[in-house]
């Protein structure tokens, strides 16, 4: 196979992204090489360059998720073969071989999700980061047992229309939880279709949101937006003294009776048995259509990444995932 590929590089944080020919990554015994056919974009892909964080060397390659075709397997790879379609999610940020803003990416085969035959590459590229993050929130941060079912309990999700929020909703319904979703009013119908039981407009006064929350036995709460909204969620939880909270973006340092839990995304690749178990559960959810991909906004070709990231920054994703399709 070819030894050269195209990648989207950060040469300098103050300079525009460039496309450049680079070498195809080498793989280890338990790794697979994936030809990316669709790449998912995330806010960190533009934020890290704009605010100069999570860039550990230059030139740098961003990109945390994709879907594509396995073109090479290591000598110790089992269950996955060349020609299989897979979903890739990179949480080992310092290893540029796993970055996805390039034609080929590497992943440990035990952490690859087989793409169901009924999903397109573009749909597959919406799944990685959002669904893995949601699963880590439930099964690591909240310590929910994979087989648990809750009755008359609820989860509050602020930012329910974000990609992580959309996957949190679906996992919550699998475990029998009622879902109180907070988002912009224009998403009410779509979020109720996804499984939200009680929708609350984020622009309502906080006291009004608290009133709706008091009607539920909130066991879990997740903020998917930022520090200020995390603070609002913690205020809402004042009347739910046995609740557990996770802030995906940032949690304010305040005194609270609520159990505040961290999100350890890196555990996915650092603890391979745990990561593999997540893959097993997620694969079941996908194959039985208990979890479905988000809506997709498609851009074509690696050279469209700079424009797509600019639009993601300026416009934001509207209950959808920005995806780069590579022919």
From TrEMBL:
It holds the Pfam family ADH_zinc_N. InterPro entries: ADH-like_C, ADH-like_N, ER, GroES-like_sf, NAD(P)-bd_dom_sf, Trans-enoyl_RdTase-like. Residues 12-324 form the Enoyl reductase (ER) domain. GO terms for molecular function: oxidoreductase activity, acting on NAD(P)H. PANTHER family: HYPOTHETICAL OXIDOREDUCTASE (EUROFUNG), ZINC-TYPE ALCOHOL DEHYDROGENASE-LIKE PROTEIN C2E1P3.01. This is GroES-like protein. It comes from Candida tenuis (strain ATCC 10573 / BCRC 21748 / CBS 615 / JCM 9827 / NBRC 10315 / NRRL Y-1498 / VKM Y-70). The lineage of its organism: Eukaryota, Fungi, Dikarya, Ascomycota, Saccharomycotina.
